[in-house]
Amino acid sequence: MRKAEAIVESGKDQVSRTLSGLWPHWLTNPSLLTFIGELRSTLRHCQTVLDVGCGNSSPLRFLPKLHLVGLEGYAPALEEARRARTHDEYFSGDVKQLGDLFSSRRFDACVALDVIEHLQKDDGWRMLADMERLATRRVIIFTPNGFMAQRSQHGNLQEHFSGWTAEDMRQRGYRVLGMLGAKPLRGEYHQIRYRPRMFWSVVSALSHYCYTRARPESAAAIFCVKSVGGGR
Question: Where is pLDDT greater, at 2 or 15?
Fold first, then answer.
């Protein structure tokens, strides 16, 4: 089995992650608090988490008391994450080869935030199968609701190649919640389309609580959770 290349491994005492760092984002991105809340609740009984396609500023960095392992294929983003100490371990590797990089049942949870839409559909299904095999408790997928065109810049792997719906994920056995409010409010990179952005960010957050969380077909993004391996 081919192993992922370890970039750096650091002990928990060397990593500073805290929920307190989340509060400055409240005024500019109130939906982030909601997103972190869903992650925190879903990962409550998990200790080791593989962050698939972790990027340079994963929202998981706001969750203390987790052993976070970051896997990223874009070297500059992985180096930025390492400098920011967002995770406990860092690995360079292709998410399309996930099943070859780590042993089965290695992690309590596998999480892929804004990753699966960057793969062709067949590769996305394979990544899901690999994540379900690596995890003992939870698999979490966060992705735009349906196809959202997005371009790559300077080879940063950010182009979108597929769209995923609530029904796609339900058929795979996932529980699906709507995220980021009403779909018409957001565009590329989940950015608010309208100005003033602070006002429409609040509108987006309110629409999440009032309507789209329970109606993911109307939401800008979907938050998908599957229990695996008998984990609760």
Answer: 2
